[in-house]
Design a protein that fits this description.
Elements (H helix, E strand, L loop, with lengths): L5 H7 L9 E8 L4 H13 L3 E6 L5 H6 L4 H5 L3 E5 L2 H10 L6 H19 L3 E5 L20 H18 L3 E4 L1 H8 L1 H4 L2 H7 L8 H15 L6 E4 L10 H8 L8 H17 L2 E7 L2 H10 L12 E5 L3 H12 L6 E4 L3 H10 L15 H8 L14 H15 L5 H7 L3 E5 L6 H10 L12 H9 L3 E10 L2 E13 L4 E9 L8 H15 L4 E5 L12 H4 L3 E4 L2 E5 L11 E2 L8
Parallel strand pairs: 1-2, 1-3, 3-4, 4-5, 6-7, 6-9, 7-8, 10-17, 13-14
Antiparallel strand pairs: 10-11, 11-12, 12-13, 14-16, 15-16
Helix pairs in contact: 1-2, 2-11, 6-7, 20-21
Amino acid sequence: MGEITFTKLKKNCKKDMSGVKECRLAIMGDCATQHLATAIRGYGVEEGIHFEVFDADYNQIDAQLLDPESEFYQFEAQFALIYMCSEKLYHSFCETEQKAGFADMVYQKIRTYWDLINTHVHVNIIQFTFVETDDRVFGNYASKTQASFLYQVKKLNFLLMNGSQEVKNVFLMDLNYIEAQYGRAAVYDDKLYYIAKMPLSTAVLPEVARQVTDIVKAISGRIKKCVITDLDNTLWGGVIGDDGLEGIQIGELGLGHAFEEFQMWLKELKSRGIILAVCSKNNEDTAKEPFLKHPEMVLHLDDFSMFVANWEDKASNIRYIQETINIGMDSIVFLDDNPFERNQVRSMIPDITVPELPEDPAMYLSYLKRLNLFETASYSESDKDRTKQYQAEIERTVSRQQYQNYDEYLQSLGMVAVAKPFDKFHYPRIAQLTQRSNQFNLRTVRYTEAEIEALAANDHFLTLYFMLKDQFGDHGLISVVILEKRDDETLFMYNWLMSCRVLKRGMEEFIINKVIETARENGYRKVIGEYIRTPKNAMVRDIYAKLGFKELGDGLFEADVDTFVQNKTFIKIEEGKEEQQ
């Protein structure tokens, strides 16, 4: 299934991770989970995550969740994993007389688990789905009758999918996908289950551990944001400069359908909010020709935030793209059919992800799907506009070159901002911004949608989101501030983060001015800010001092509300507009 074996993961568990920040994970199952716990700990080492794991005893979900003093609650986990296996589910199904209502009954039990957890602790829940196994009692008719186990387990998974949309801190790990990918014989060890109540084979445990780790990484903000792709023999078959427009393979010609579906997949990624860019060794006009003239091309020029085609080395061009769109290099995936180019980019840019594409283009898509590079913990409707936002940003860059005075350029943009308390319509985007922002993030606290909703309802906090638009387009929701009421006189900036797309436009100044104004309106005399250093947020180390706060030491800064001098900004507040609800 992969190069990483369970034996290697066991050896990883012996490595010293004492210098790495802990990620506390609790595992509960109605089957034996000790091997699963070992695999997750070992895979965490592969990803630089120090999993501190509480593995509950066999079949102790009820005992752990019903007792407020249980080991689970005392552990204070950040993530709670619940694994209920299909084998145990089948036993319960056989014992019930109400076959048609079985899925609803089990789902209500699981919802009770989620509610119990959320009543007592603040944690993200990872719920395994159920493998849709069939006992063949009805044969193929099982899909047609509610009396079959197959029908009920499919319905149960559907109920879990809907329920996880309602309970925002629940994330599903699709165990059924893993079986569909690798086959039951590879995923399950029947003998191991009968002897030790461990359904999963040791061969599949690394893959299961990887999927769990991917979810943890996504919730923690370690996500991919951009795909940079080559063109010849990557997006189409052949070389456009040699074969001409009629000779490249896309659509009906040669392996054209494989490239067509590959492009369709990339376009879906773009719709989900992943930035697409081109990096090709080619003449620019020649490279653009298929997108402009080929009738079977799925992707078009306006699907790409940047299009770089020249004869420079690809590592330099990738750095140019990365600096222009202003995201971390570790957020980028580079796709190229040429092993030489892949190796060069890997060696010159260690942080970038460069998949080792198969030699056969027909295998590109299935290979990339298995890698699961684009795991996410959130999605909002505004994601589909991200390409337009980056294209508009490039227009701003070109416009800026026309001005010698930067203040004149900022004034020319006609910037207008919205500043409002968190609202339900924007919860998904607010949560997503906390998960995606790394560089302009003063305390680097990540939130799920459920946590954002809870903060908005908590009287102990004041919340603000900020939106910005100018003559080139709408940036959307670009900054979040969470203010904690420390005492009758003091507001603490519990979190402040902002998209780097709007850096040095005066938005930082605008936000701090609004924070001080909010403090004054609510009767507070002091605002305290804090900078907590991470490997990625050095750019905001001195931001409070630059914006008029007095340094207190230990990363703390203070502003006196009464004497604070407003920062200069060319951004105007948009008054009286009601946001879409």
